[in-house]
Amino acid sequence: MRILQLNLNHCAAAQDLLEQTVFENNIDVALLSEQYSQRSESTWATDISGKAAIWSCKGQPFISCSKDHNCYTWANIRGIYFVSCYAPPSVLIKGFEDFLLELALETRGKSPVIIAGDFNAWSTAWGSRHTNYRGRLLLEFLSQTNLTIMNSGTQNTFQKGNKGSIIDLMFANDALSRHIKWTVSDIFTNSDHMAIIANVSFSGETEPRSKGTC
Questions:
Q1: Cα distance between residue 137 and residue 36, in whole Å
Q2: Could you write out the DSSP letters of every residue in 11-50?
Q3: In this structure, what is the dihedral angle of CA atoms 62, 67, 68, 71, given to the nearest 10 degrees?
Q4: What structural domains and CATH numbers belong to the chain?
Q5: Helices 93-107 and 133-145 meet at what angle, rounded to 10?
Q6: What is the reported pTM?
Q7: Segment 102-158, tens digit of pLDDT
């Protein structure tokens, strides 16, 4: 399974290019942040804010999903729980703490799970030059939830002119992390965020569809 993670920077041109990117790179699931618009099909889920989305690009139906949260949404596709997040820089520290607490509670017991998104958090643990308060909170979240950071290296995931940072992150639990090959791609995205590609050599078990969750 091939996963695309991308912040579209609320850019129409970037979203216009998304379908071509998905097709040319044989993408199964797209985990998106700051999308410009929403797709109407049942294989698209978005959060309340409309800034985090999951797209099952090849039409694979959701086994279950939830669209009732702010800053994140989740969907089970082929037995894997995917969570797409966007924590804007405007969210105060208390709001960021509340977001992480809710995310931990919501994903408890969901396995295997991939969580990805733009967290606007810096830490040397994923290649940043320094660790900020959000980064420390996110590290605490990872230790409490037994999630592993998939990011490797020091290549920026956000680049605007001479300024860049590593803020687009992906985590997975132990059941899945060893089956993921993660990379920052040089695909042209029309966004100031880089495309991240994850190859997942894991097949989850199919579950019965949950009632009333999508």
A1: 29
A2: -HHHHHHHHHHHHHTT-SEEEEES-SS---STTEEE-TTS
A3: 130
A4: 2-200 (3.60.10.10)
A5: 20
A6: 0.94
A7: 999 999 999 999 999 999 999 999 999 999 999 999 999 999 999 999 999 999 999
